[in-house]
Amino acid sequence: AMERGYVSVLLLLIVISCALAKDAGKKDSKDATTKPKLPQTLSRGWGDQLIWTQTYEEALFRSKHSQKPLMIIHHLEDCPHSQALKKVFAEHKDIQKLAEKFILLNLVYETTDKNLAPDGQYVPRVLFIDPSLTVRADITGRYSNRLYAYEPSDISLLYSNMQKALKLLKTEL
């Protein structure tokens, strides 16, 4: 009889500790809502409400399977040009709306795929890849020495290039 009492006390302890852990969990999530929200990691500030892929491989896979074009933004957190472009990109309502039709990836490091640096590893640069997984060398910015570079003042060109990427899709596939 002694042993059975021991077991039930032990069970009670387990139940109590689980309940405490649950409450602790609840408290933490409440704190998170009162603190200012940190930017979503994958968006890195390029559009927090958009769905961003985590890796280049995942982005290619999703593009191929969803038949949506892929837009890749190479940037660096401490690059003033990247920061400036990010700001206008994130605040551009039409771009943010249109971006929903793309598989999206922003990278702060280079991939091993040389196709993503057709004319060098500068930032910021934006490349479009179609669902056949071809880098669209025909969708470029306005600089002949850095074909995929965009300045904040080129934001409307970037917008029309996004439209172009979606149009190509309809005509070619």
From TrEMBL:
Signal peptide positions on this chain: 1-21
Matching InterPro entries: AGR/TXD (IPR051099), Thioredoxin-like_sf (IPR036249)
Cellular localization per UniProt: Endoplasmic reticulum; Secreted
Keyword Signal applies: yes
Family: Belongs to the AGR family.
Lineage, opening ranks: Eukaryota, Metazoa, Chordata, Craniata, Vertebrata
Predominant subcellular localization, coarse grouping: endoplasmic reticulum
Keyword Flavoprotein listed: no
One matching Pfam family: Thioredoxin_7
GO molecular function terms noted in the UniProt entry: dystroglycan binding
GO CC, one annotated term: extracellular region
CDD domains found in the cross-reference section: AGR (cd02960)
Protein name in UniProt: AGR2 protein
Keyword vocabulary terms for this entry: Endoplasmic reticulum, Secreted, Signal
